[in-house]
Fold this protein.
Amino acid sequence: MFKHLVLALLVAAGPAGSAWGVSFGSAHVLVVDEASGAVLLEKDAATAAPIASLTKLMTAMVVLDAGQDLGALVRIDDADRDTLKFSRGGVPVGTELSRESLLALALVASDNHAAAALARTYPGGTTAFAEATRRKIDALGLTQTMLVEPTGLSPDNHASAQDMVKLLQATQAYPLIAQTTSQRTHALQVNGQTRAVRNTNPLVGKPGWDVLVSKTGFTNEAGRCLTMRLRAGGRTVSVVLIGALASSARALDALNIRRWLDGEAPLRRTERTAQRAPVPTRQPRPAAVVGEGPAGPPEV
């Protein structure tokens, strides 16, 4: 009881949480109480920035809106390869998977080939998919968002943290997204064999974390990104982190948000977490599924 009273007083003191000196390594931060709509914590939340694979939440919603057969098999094609950054990770060309499995790969393992195939096989093809994405952006009232392709590889895919909260909250209408992204691992059938892929967000399934929806992202331009719906401190909140320079900085931001919500003092940012980590050039691949070349850096 006392802990939540302290939290209430801190929230009333201001949205930045400055009473406890909460600082963030992410360039753009927003934490919103879903019940009241109150902004609990924020940092430059109105500025649009590249969002990397956070894009795939929108990709999944647009695909699900089309009402296509989720059990239908889709073949990964040469057209699904990454021609923007020429990353080597992804489901091998020629692999056939159900549309539902492709959604899981795109959301859980952040597989770019899977996201590209979903857009390519959208009714009317990639052009119709792009038009549907623009309509969805308008329908959700995302005024600081532009998405030019389905994977997030393009630096032209950008949004503000404020828009990302709206997008995140819209996932509540898509139970499959919540069910899929709240699992630590996801099993799927590949060429008649059961394979497991790991969630790119290591907080999912970790003791003390109740993550309802999750998506990570990383490109050189976007930095380390994370968005999730989270239960903590007796609240359900939407959390958006964009533009952390290192995975450790993003992880500390997420941990301090949860601690703040639970009425605990945030951990101090060390010199190590504030430093810029070397930025790898390859994108991640789903574990135990992809066979093309060496694995890229984990998107966590």
Notes: The first strand starts at residue 28 and ends at 33. The chain has nine helices and eleven strands. Residues 2-274 form a domain with the Beta-lactamase fold (CATH 3.40.710.10). Residues 101 and 265 are 41 Å apart (CA to CA).
